[in-house]
């Protein structure tokens, strides 16, 4: 079931937009790396802000078996030099109390962040006890100190996402005040879940934000 949903999301969202009916366009901003799930980096390594947007399409008839989700494409651009990402997926919506709605989205994204922070060969040799620092020459010791400092800085400022492609789960709570306009708060989590790859870090990335939506 899970794989069928992902395959359907990819095929539907990347099909020709000329054949798709746009349902809404969303644009807003988000706080990047807040670790709201407890599954993120846990260290505010990339705390920053970004612009977040999506295009949501009408429900295609062939996805009625999956409770009629809406395909979407979207992503976030981080203007502070941290991780940006974009992708596609499926969105399920439940309306309640007349004008309020709850969304759940599931999809895949590609990002430009760090897959894994790795030590240089010199630093790794000391970590592995293959080389003893005391046996270094003065030049080697200076090189080791420089590369170790760079490694520590990267460990503290870059999220080890583990995979270039990540799962993206998002929840949103919104209010629609007219036929054309609504607004919603959203929270999302990105990670590979030890499913897309194995044996790599999986620190994950959490964001929280607000968007306005124009309905068509």
Strand portion, in percent? 35-45%
* Helix content range: 10-25%
Order of secondary-structure elements? HEEEEEHHEEE
Total number of helical segments? 3
CATH overall fold name of the largest domain? Porin
Structural shape: elongated
Span of the ends, CA to CA:
31 Å
Rg, please? 21 Å
Detail the topology: elements first, then pairings.
Blueprint: H1 2-13, E1 22-32, E2 48-57, E3 70-78, E4 85-96, E5 100-111, H2 121-127, H3 138-157, E6 165-176, E7 181-191, E8 205-215
Antiparallel strand pairs: 1-2, 1-8, 2-3, 3-4, 4-5, 5-6, 6-7, 7-8
Model description:
There is one protein chain. The protein is α+β, with helices and mostly antiparallel strands and 216 residues long. It has 2 domains: 2-113 and 162-215, Beta Barrel (Porin), CATH 2.40.160; 121-155. Helix content is 18%, strand content 41%. The protein contains 3 helices and 8 strands. The protein has an 8-stranded antiparallel β-barrel with strand order 1-2-3-4-5-6-7-8. It is elongated and about 75 Å long. Residues 1-10 have low confidence and may be disordered.
